[in-house]
Structure formats: structure tokens, C-alpha cells
Amino acid sequence: MYKQTGTRLQSLPQEAIKMFINSFDTVLTDCDGVIWLFNDALQGAPNVINRFLEMGKKVFFVTNNSTKTRDEFLVKAKQLNFNISRDGIVSTAYLAAQYLKSQKFSKKAYVIGSTGIVQELDAVGIKHTGIGPDVLTNGLASFVNEELKRDPEVGAVVVGFDEHFSFPKLIRACSYADDPECLFIATNTDERFPLAHCVIPGTGSIVRCVETAAERKAFVVGKPNPFMCETLIREHGIDPGRTLMIGDRCNTDILLGTNCGFQTLLVETGIHKESDVEAWLKSKDPEDQKLVPDFIVSKLGDLLDYLN
């Protein structure tokens, strides 16, 4: 009834809200900007997540953040009083490793990213190279003619967030990806992270650089790509028709829900707000319509009153 209407949840009658709460068995939630912000839990978020678990609902933290392993996310979640288990955490570093494993990949991966990715690759026995700084010290000609050595064992390029991203890394990645037999994987395509005093380019900015130079598109394992949904169905048996996706970014979180047939809930503690949704509702572009959530709340903690 409320599919992609951008309805303010608290405007509904109590009975309708109760029906909504009872309409899903599985909750997928983004992390940054939804349940926590940096190292602090958002108000009421642990109570809501823990109450969902007490009600018998499956809960998964689904994050496009590729800088940490699932174990590292679990430590953070426990410190912030979320009663989640390791199986309830799905990160893009984990998904990238699982994708390569599903392809029976046995070569080496060139990684633009951080330790989160390589530790997840280690966990499934996949060799890797490329992590850490790689700078242009003696000029481009010297790098290309003397320093650049292509590893014949590399059969995949994996691109995630990398604070050491550089021109030499771009050269290496697109040179490997120039081979059509080389797998080309991106953790996510989040464009940017706006802060109060600056904008931090996101993984999507790095991915687009490599895609442009390689003249091919990466396979994206993170939101809004359905691979995340396929993994959850295969490993945990979730029912898309009884799943709720909660997020703060409509072009990843809500679009994942749209792509996978989930119900969707936008919280306004992160990137997108009700004003954005209103603009998309007025748009005649069908791609904009896909970004519209079913429901909107100011913050996740607002749900607590309806869960008792």
C-alpha cells in the first residue's frame, strides 16, 4: 500500500504501524549514519536493534565500508551495545572475498584498498598484492620504464576505499584490468562523504577512475548491487518479501531495497532527507522513482515506541 510513497511513518495510525512492524521478519540496516556515527551510537539505535532481536527478527548490519573485517565491525558493535553476532555482519570486504571464492578463483588479486579487504581474502585463502602506499618518486617515465613490473599471477583487480590511492596504483590496476580475462571487482560506488568542513571522496570516485582508464565496468558487490541480497538468500535463507532495508543513503541503501523487492525505511540521520524524496516523487525520471523509500523517520530510535 505504501510502496515507494515516502510516507512519514509516524503519520500513520497506530494499527497501521503495528501491521508494518509485523510485516517483516528480517531487518537489514546500514551502519554509518543509521545506527552509529563514527565511534558513537545514534540515540536509541541500540535499543531498537536489540528489541528487533528480542522479537525474533533476523538482523544484519550491511555496510559498504570495506576498510574493516567482520570481526572488527563486531568489536565496534559490541562496544556500542548492539547484541549482534558475527554472522549478522555483511561488509563489502567480506563480499568481495566471497565473490572470488564463488568463482573458484585461484590466482592473485591486485588490491586497491585497505587491510579489511586483504584480511578477508586471507580468510578464504586468496593471495593478494598492492596494499599500502605506492607513490611516484622519480617521474612517470621512470616508473613506466623501470619500476613497473606486472605480476603474471594476478588474475583479479579489487577496488575499495584506499587513502593511499595514487597514479601508480591507477596504472597498475588498469594495466591488469586491460586483460579481459582479469576479474574486475569493486566493493561499492559511494561517491563521497560530506563532513562539516570538507568532502571526502568515496570509493566510487576511485572506482570510476579505474573504470575510465580500463575502459570496462567493475562488478560491484556492495549496495545497491543484488549480489548482497543473493548472498543473504543463499547463506541465511532470507525472504525478500518479508525483509526491511533501513538506510540513510537512497542511491545505495534504498535502491538496494528497490532492486531486491524489500520494504524500505529512510532515516534522516545521514545523507538524504525528506526534501530529497519530495524532489524524486515529482520527477518524471523512472531512475529517480527507484530512490523513493516506502517510509521515512527522523532517526532509527523513533521506532522504539512502536516495538513494545
Automatic annotation (TrEMBL):
Pfam families: Hydrolase_6 (PF13344), Hydrolase_like (PF13242). Keywords: Hydrolase, Magnesium, Metal-binding. Divalent metal ions. Mg(2+) is the most effective. The active site is at 30 (nucleophile), 32 (proton donor). Mg(2+) binds at residues 30, 32, 248. InterPro entries: HAD-like_sf, HAD-SF_hydro_IIA, HAD_sf, PGP_euk. Substrate binds at residue 223. One of its GO terms (cellular component) is cytoplasm. Its cofactor is Mg(2+). One of its GO terms (molecular function) is metal ion binding. NCBIfam families: HAD-SF-IIA (TIGR01460), PGP_euk (TIGR01452). Belongs to the HAD-like hydrolase superfamily. PANTHER family: 4-NITROPHENYLPHOSPHATASE-RELATED, FI11325P-RELATED. This is Putative phosphoglycolate/pyridoxal phosphate phosphatase family. It comes from Nyssomyia neivai.
